[in-house]
Design goal:
Elements (H helix, E strand, L loop, with lengths): L12 E3 L15 E4 L3 E13 L3 E4 L2 E3 L4 E5 L2 E2 L3 H9 L6 E8 L2 E8 H6 L4 E15 L4 E4 L17 E6 L1 E6 L7 E6 L6 E4 L2 E3 L2 E5 L12 E2 L9 E10 L2 E12 L4 E5 L2 H7 L3 E2 L5 E4 L2 E10 L2 E9 H4 L5
Parallel strand pairs: 14-22
Antiparallel strand pairs: 1-24, 2-10, 2-18, 3-6, 3-10, 3-12, 4-5, 6-7, 6-8, 8-9, 10-11, 11-17, 12-15, 13-14, 16-17, 19-20, 19-23, 20-21, 21-25, 23-24, 24-25
Length: 320
Amino acid sequence: MRWISRKLLLPVLLLLMMLPAGAAMAQKPKSLIPMGHSIGIHLDLGRVMVTDDVMVGNGNWLRAGDFIESLDGAKVTDTAGITQLAGNLKDGAEAELSVEREGKPVVVTAEKKELENLPAFIRERTEGVGTLSYIDPQTGEYGALGHQIVDRALDGPPPFTGGSIHLADIEQIRKSEPGVPGYKISSVKSGTKLLGDIRDNDVYGIFGKWTSSLKGAFPEPLGVMRPEEIKEGDAKILTTIEGVEIGTYGIRITSTASGAFRFTVTDEELIKKTGGILQGMSGSPIIQDGKFAGVITHMFVEEPTKGAGLPVGEMTKKKP
């Protein structure tokens, strides 16, 4: 499964997956359990959203990011509702869609034939794949991704009514190449292998309550490095590139700053299999000197063996 909402390709950096939750942490935890599992992410919008510009008849358009509220006065809550209401119309008939567009009400006239084709351009959920970063044994909460989920249709974080994370099984890898970011292909079924809910979609990731017995790569929690403790030199990342097994791969931290650091992948096996960093690796834990240093957040598009990391101590704050 790939992101419905694709990452924004920045001139230099690609924001990796896909991409919230949990009650706010009152203070930085002293230790966390590093994870590294690939996860499927489901954010329920609670409404029907248009994903792409689509003409619905007679020169009338629905725009990406529109929310469909009702059809001929009948409230719409999901894709199936649109299909059912459209099926009740007579052939050649038109209907009025009440839409919220950029916070304002809009009425769009649509033809029955176009309404029947509309399900390909609407959805009730934002989905994607990322990497589970940590479990906090003190609070029973998790953190993932290391960055906010942004929905391409909205060009921003989606409003959501709830969500969940699920264990993802990596079936295939498309390698990264200079200028062409790679990605993971995985299978995730909603309602199976549930790991936790989603309560926050904040600047530094998604957060929520952990409800699974899934174990991390370490038997015990690791101490959290303060940002100023992270130094240039060897480190390793925990991430999943095949099935559900976490792998450990070598990197070298090349520069540090108070709020971020940069690294280069040095592990030849990882480079051979993935080309470096992939979409879907964001959130992968970074371990240095036996401590939890940070998580992967970005890759350099033109140099996919290079990436950027966020200190995990900063991540637990959720916001700068």
